[in-house]
Each structure stands twice: as structure tokens, then as C-alpha cells.
Amino acid sequence: MISGLYQGQDGDSTLVLRVDVDGPRPTGRVSGDLFAASGATVTYDGSFVVHAPVVTAEADETRAEGRGEFTFATPDRDVRVTIIGDGGTARVAGRDYPVRFTSRHFREVVLEQDSVAGAVPFVSYHTGRLRGPDGSPARELNVVEAWAEAGVGMTVTEPGVIPVDGSGADLAWDDAELHHAMTQQFSQFGDAPAWRVWLLVASRHVGGYRGIMFDYDDAHQRQGAAVFHDAIKGDSPEAQRAQLRTYVHELGHAFNLLHSWQKNLATPPQPLGPHGGFGDLSWMNYVQNYRPGGEEGYWAAFPFQFTDAELVHVRHGFFRDVAMGANAFGAGAAEVAPFEQPIEDHSGLALELRAKDPFGFGEPVVVELKLSCTGEPRVTHGHLHPDTEFTQVTITQPSGRTVLYRPMMRHCVDRSPEIRLDAGNPAMYRSAYIGHGRDGHYFQQPGEYRVRAQYIAADGSHVVSPPCLVRVRYPATDDDHRVAELMLGEDQGKLFSLLGSDSPALRPGNEALDEMIDRFGQHPLSVYARMVKGLNAEREFKTITAGKRLRIRPPDPKQGIEQLARVAGAGTIDNITLNMVMRRWARAEARQGDLPKARAVLDKMVATFQAKGVNPIIMGQIRKQAELTSQALSLEA
């Protein structure tokens, strides 16, 4: 067997070579990366892959040769590898490299795993404990072994445990806290691609998610992930099996693997598997969405491995497309075609987008999504917000270019609560901030934009909305210009996505919002700065110190009340966001010890929406929401 990782050097050029023609699940490829040494530095030169090499063996010599696909221009695209024993030669781009065998793995990655005290990390699962597919060998699998089967050698550093002494009872993490924790941890690695990934085992996420890949809009993405112990804990075989899948799944995103049903949104687009990707037997599929058979069908057929196409990517994808901190998730800010209505649509569902008209220049663009049934009752999942990626949004800019909105944080939802849409509950609604994501600001110039959304229903149906016109008006005054400058910074965009943060990495953004309130407090757009500052003040904020201890900044209810009360009274924000703001305002009042005032705020919320003429069904839901919030605040008090 000759497959594995080889390294060689010719002068100042280093070749990292991968030969994958025999051994477990060979993909029949040869690939490699080239690096150049200059002084005390090493830079990346490019990559290549031979998709179908001709392999010949004579005595103790094996040759693999073929035409290569390169990331750079070269007059000589013929690649020839000759292996004798544990070494040989490789001719690549006209240069000859003597190479030596270094590993049976095709990639070598360092995994640094930290856990919050009380969140017990997953150890291993024996695949024979529960019924699986015939022909799949029963074996003991942990995260390292699962990735080893994919051809990735994973070295785990000494695990760290983060104490929670004095941290209070609330150990639920939100996106802003995770963003801060991960940027803090990764600052030691430097802003450069590296085969290194960080995994945080936390207690729980405020949204109830099982896992999240850290991925925001800078030049060095996919460097870490978090899994949430409270959502996946347990000693039963079913729980252990689910934990293994969650860990491997989240780390798969760090290798730039998309969900099974999203591969057509990559750059370049990849073909979807059966049932629009939901039929993939892969770590990257969602168990509950597998077709056919759902969760039961998935586990009965899943061999605990990646698909063949995913193996090709992990083993032979070009360096910058796979290495952590290199190309953005999905390989970059892809220009895409706007979603088109299906030729036939028998889903019984309709999707609509709504937006205010117009938006001020620099104003955070928020759209309302409405999913309704068009006839007979329908049952589907409730993941309508685009941060779960069952809903995607395209934005056609004034230039005519269409881009895909990509959320700053990616939430993996391994459980999909069923929603029944019928006469008593004809529609569900979500509000989504789409003004900023992993590619920066999407509405950076005045003009007309056309926004369209696609919802992937529980049965796999693609429900597409009509286009929604979003108009961004030109600034009319000098104050409008200055306010827009303060709103359109990259850090400010991240703060709007995260609904505030204490992270020092975002200090310039917070300073800009403070200036917005201090100097332009009467400007209509100042309400958004107040909202971000108020929401962040009203909550506690977790920080992992350099010594890996957990510290919590307590809520500041007085500051939260001061800002959120003004937001609620401004009449500027959309109804769904207003609902959230008023409930958080009520929580701030309760945390300050004034339960009657908290209940009065909730009563005011009901009266506000009643005065807006909200339809009776939604009005009933708002009253129920106010009642449940009041009960929860009483219990918390």
C-alpha cells in the first residue's frame, strides 16, 4: 500500500504530496500543496490535483501519473509520482522533488478542546451497541478515530477545563459570548491559515442548539466550533451516538464542509445527492431530515462516515479551500442566481418577505418572513430564520449583482419542532437582520435592491418568495452622512448581528455607537444604537480569561431600561423586534426588583400591538406570550 502523505523539497520549494490510490476507501487521486521558503518565512504557492491518475506497478515500484488541475498557471500540467518503498520522486509543474513517506493520513490537524466545568466532553461510542446497516463494521469510535477514517490525523492537545466559580446559575451562552470567547482563544494563533481548530464544550446555548461553528465575516474563518452539553448529554447508547455525530459534524464545518442539502450554494456549486441532499448518509446531514425514513431511517443505514464527494474535499481540496483560517466558508462570497419559483409547487405553503419602505442610508436592513399554508393544513418545521440555513436569502444589488446572505453565526439545529399551519394558526413569522453577514455589509449604497428567500420545508420542498423591493434612500443632510458612516463600520455590523457585545475586539464598534447616541441622539437611526447598547446592558456577559477561568459581568438593568424604553417609544423598529425589546425591557425592570413595573411593561406591549390593529390570531399569541413572560419573571424573582 502506497497511499498516504509524502513530503519533499527542491531548492526553496516544498511539496506536500497526497497519494490516494489504495487502502481504505481510496478516492483514486493524487494531490498536493506547494510552499516557498524565503529567509525565515514560508508562503503558500499553490495546489494541484490529479483526478484520475493512471497507476502502474512493476516489482517494488509504483507509478501514478496524469494531467493535473492547478490553482496557478503552469505550462507543464503533467504530474508523475514514482514510489519505491517509503520514498520516491514526484514531478510537479516541471520540477522534480525527492519525497519521503510521513503519514497514512492525508492531513494532520491539531485539535484544542476546552470544556466549561460541568460540561463533560464526549469520549467514545461503540457502533455495534445499536442496530445499524449490514456490512458496516462494529467498532469503537471517538472523534479522533472518526476523522482518521476520513484520512485526517487529529492530534488532541491537553484538554482544558474552565472553572465556573462565582459565575452564577445562568450558564447559557449566546452568540456574542461565543464570538468573544473564540476570538480571544484564537488570537494566539495569528491571522493566518493553519491546520488547527478549537472546540469549546459549553453548557447550553440560549437558542437550545446542539452545536455552532464559529464563523464570522473576517478574512480568517472556520477556526473553531462549540457543542452544547445540556442538549446532547446522556450515557445511553442513543445519546452517545448523537454526541459523536454532533462533534464530527461541527468540526466538519471547520474543514469547509457544507450541510448535505446546501452543496449547490458552494463556490463552485457542487451537485446535490439524492432527495435534494437529504438522502446523503453523511455526518453532514441532519438526522431528522433524512429521506427516506427520517431519524430512524438514517441510523438504520448510516455507516458512520462521510460521502465519497466529501472525502475528496477533505483529502484533496486545495489548501485554501480546506485549511482553517483560509478561504471563507463555502469558498467565498459567491455571486449566485436569484432563487426561481419551482416549475410545479404542490407544497401547500407560501413564503413572503416584507420590509419597511424606505430605509435610511446606513439603517440596519431587517425583513419579516411569513410562511403560511395555502389550502389544507400543513405540518413543517419552525426554522424560518436564515441563521439556521433552512431558509436562504439572495440580495440583488443596484449594480445587478446577486449575492447570497450568509449569517455571521451558523447554528446547527439537530432537532426540528413541528409546526402545524391551519385555520387556527395560519402563518408563522420571523424577523431577520440581513444588513450584515460574513461578507460584510450588503446594503452599502443607496438605491433599489431586490430580496428573495427560499425555505426548505420538512418534506424537502423548496418554497420561494416573490421578490421584495428594498429601497435605501440617499442621505439628505450632513448629519445623515455622518450617521451613515457611524452605522456602516464592520464592527458595528457585527454588533447588530450579535445584539451587542463586551468583546474588546469590537471596541471600535461600541465607541461608534456611543458617539451616535451622544452626538446624534435625536436622529431617527439612533434608535438602533440604543437597542444594541440596551440589550447588551440588560443581559449578563460571559468572558473566558487568559487563564481559562469563566468570569461573568452582571446585568446592568438601569442602563438597559434607559435605552430600551426609548427604543420602544420611538415607533421605528419592526413589530417582531419591538416584541423582543419590550420583553427584555420587562426583564430589566424585574431584575431591578420592580415586578409590578415589569408587568406594566408587558401590559403596554399588548396594548401597543392592539393599537396597531394586529390580526386577532396573532394578538392572541402576543397575549399568551406576555402571560408566559410574566410567569417566568415571577419565578426568576
Unreliably modeled segments? none
Overall 3D shape? globular
Mean pLDDT: 89
Class by SSE composition: alpha+beta
Largest sheet: 10 strands, antiparallel
Oligomeric state of the chains present here: single chain
What does this structure look like?
- The protein is α+β, with helices and mostly antiparallel strands.
- About 30% of the residues lie in helices and about 30% in strands.
- It contains 15 helices and 35 strands.
- The strands form nine sheets. Strands 5-6-8-9-10-1-2-3-4-7 form a ten-stranded antiparallel β-sheet, covered by helices on one side.
- Strand 34 and strand 35 form a beta hairpin.
- The radius of gyration is 26 Å and the shape is globular.
- The model has no long low-confidence stretch (mean pLDDT about 90).
SSE arrangement:
Elements: E1 4-10, E2 13-20, E3 29-38, E4 41-50, E5 54-58, E6 61-67, E7 69-70, E8 78-84, E9 87-92, E10 95-103, E11 107-116, E12 125-126, E13 140-141, H1 143-149, E14 152-156, E15 160-162, E16 172-173, H2 175-186, E17 196-202, E18 204-205, E19 211-214, E20 224-228, H3 229-232, H4 237-254, H5 294-301, H6 308-316, H7 319-322, E21 349-354, E22 366-373, E23 378-381, E24 391-396, E25 402-404, E26 410-412, E27 418-421, E28 427-433, E29 436-437, E30 440-441, E31 447-456, E32 462-464, E33 468-472, H8 478-487, H9 490-498, H10 507-520, H11 526-538, E34 541-544, E35 550-553, H12 557-570, H13 575-591, H14 595-611, H15 616-636
Parallel strand pairs: 11-14, 11-15, 11-17, 16-18, 17-20
Antiparallel strand pairs: 1-2, 1-10, 2-3, 3-4, 4-7, 5-6, 6-8, 8-9, 9-10, 12-13, 19-20, 19-26, 21-22, 22-28, 23-27, 24-25, 24-31, 29-30, 31-32, 31-33, 34-35
